[in-house]
Design goal:
By secondary structure, the protein is an alpha+beta fold. It has 4 helices and 6 strands; from the N terminus they run βββααβββαα.
Length: about 160
């Protein structure tokens, strides 16, 4: 049986959209499998799904594969009682998830809603988050193009120095 990581009460199953969650009976948060977290975050109100971003996937990989801690509070897995890893979901969400690499993910009360709202805003191309992400991508692409041009310029200079015609 899973227990709340805060009050240690046994969790109760609760349906959230198409995902069954293990929720604290006192409202402290929810316990999910990694796949359930992704499904819950990326299913929008009309039942359609949004795509997971690279940052989301990378943060989940880090928290599941590495001993990552973002704060001093360490919580134990409600199943194996080992300390869980923690990381800020998608690195900029403001939501710290606690994860046991073997058993699942803990979200404090309200954090699932925050993650869902952020995913829906990213899915809307006119949202400030989407426009900001597009601007970052464009700047990254432009910087990459400048690096390629500089490297080609250096190669051309070296060719001119060593292979005079």
């Amino acid at each position: 049986m899973k227990r709340c990581v805060i009050c240690l009460e046994d969790t109760v199953e609760r349906q959230h959209e198409d995902v069954t969650l293990d929720a604290c009976p006192n409202g402290h948060g929810v316990w999910l499998l990694e796949r359930e977290l992704v499904d819950a975050v990326h299913t929008v109100a009309d039942g359609s799904r949004t795509g997971m971003t690279y940052e989301e996937g990378r943060s989940l990989t880090m928290v599941m594969d590495h001993d990552v801690k973002v704060d001093d509070e360490v919580r134990d897995c409600p199943m194996c009682e080992r300390p869980m890893n923690s990381v800020e979901y998608a690195f900029t969400s403001g939501v710290v998830i606690d994860a046991c690499p073997t058993h699942g993910v803990w979200l404090d009360a309200g954090e699932l809603d925050q993650l869902e709202q952020a995913a829906e805003q990213r899915a809307d191309p006119s949202s400030p988050e989407s426009l900001d992400a597009e601007a970052r991508r464009a700047a990254r692409d432009e910087a990459g193009n400048r690096q390629v041009e500089l490297k080609l310029s250096i190669v051309d200079s070296l060719r001119g120095m060593f292979f005079k015609r």
